[in-house]
Amino acid sequence: MEFRSTGGGRVAYVKSCVLYDADGVIQHVHHVVDMEGVEETPESVVAERALALARDRGLDYAALRALHVDPSLISGPVHMRVDTSSGALVTEESSAL
């Protein structure tokens, strides 16, 4: 994932959180980008914001679980899900890709 900024700002931190259902299907992905000079956003705040956005979009947010993931793992046209037994992000094979 690549980010650019106007002016001289530089990216300090990028965090990603996926929200998934009981079957491991990812329902929402949320990214937070912190620029140099600001305090790093805690993972708890990233997850809270992801859940709030899911609620605002009409998703059954109370049934979703949050998983913080390396942003580089979810870039590009890849179909992913969460293995609910291990809590790990996994790639699914798809004939549509």
Q: How are the elements arranged and paired?
A:
Blueprint: E1 11-20, E2 26-35, H1 43-56, E3 65-69, E4 80-83, E5 88-91
Antiparallel strand pairs: 1-2, 1-3, 4-5
Number of helices: 1
Share in helix: 10-25%
Secondary-structure element order, N to C: EEHEEE
Poorly predicted runs of 5 or more residues: none
Structure commentary:
With 97 residues, the protein is of the alpha+beta class. The protein has 1 helix and 5 strands. The strands form 2 sheets. The chain has a 3-stranded antiparallel beta sheet with strand order 2-1-3, covered by helices on one side. Strands 4-5 form a two-stranded antiparallel ribbon. It starts with 10 loop residues before the first strand and ends in a 6-residue tail after the last strand. The model has no long low-confidence stretch (mean pLDDT 89).
